[in-house]
Write the structure tokens for this entry.
Amino acid sequence: MTSTSPDPAGVPLLRAVGLDYTYPAGPVALRGVNLDIATGRRRALLGANGSGKSTLLLALNASILADAGCIEFQGEAIGTSRRERNLHRRRVGLVLQDPDDQLFSASVFEDVSFGPLNLGLDDASARQRVEEVLDQLALTDLADRPAHLLSFGQRKRVAIAGVAAMRPDVMALDEPFAGLDPMARREVVDTLARLEASGTTIVLTTHDLELAYAWADDVTLLNDGEVLADGSPDAVLGDRTVCERARLDPPPIIGLLEAAVGAGWLTAAQASEVRTVDQLRQVIETRSSGGSGSNMEPDSGGALRDALHER
């Protein structure tokens, strides 16, 4: 379990301050990026391809050094020396988009052991930590399996376990849901929930705006290396002008909630509590059958119910 305490007033757990970064002989990736990540709050970084999401994760983890600006952890700027950056990576772990870039040992157990052993733990202490992480993330049954024989979703979860075994305060994940079927996606979401329960703060990138709307406490929308919007999922993803500038379509749940409020099936306050199409469907079905004290006409939401059943 991580030992990070609640943020002191005005001091976020992790902060990016005025980050600029240009790849060698390549495009400008970050332009004056400012970002605050608070302890225990789920953060999703959103944007089209090339918007700077993955580069920002690399900077937050100190895998790259910004051309300008800095990264702060609990109010202290991270130095540029190898020692300081390595220490920071123990606090802010990074899970790459392709798990095969992180898995290379003969078995799952050995892969997850790599981080703790690299921290200098003795064999007994490393084994204990690995067993704890595998149990925590429901991966014990895979411990002796070769990673290359696992499904893509299983390999994603093992890659997450390998970073979790180092007990970072923050885990930064690049597209953890990419390439996964619905069942595997739910398993990764469950894995992240278990990490959060142990005190790890999660920040991730994703192209899945509907999942981000359901999962995140805070979202950051990037475009061409700049932060276009930062705030709650409702405020950011409900702003069609901002989404259009970022070359993204708002998640369908936004339009459905607007229709539900317009039809009188939900108040704006009630709509703000609904995060998924399934939740909205349950509310509409309950109200259409006269439940929850509704005084609405049973058929008044028919068009909306039809739209929901098409989802």
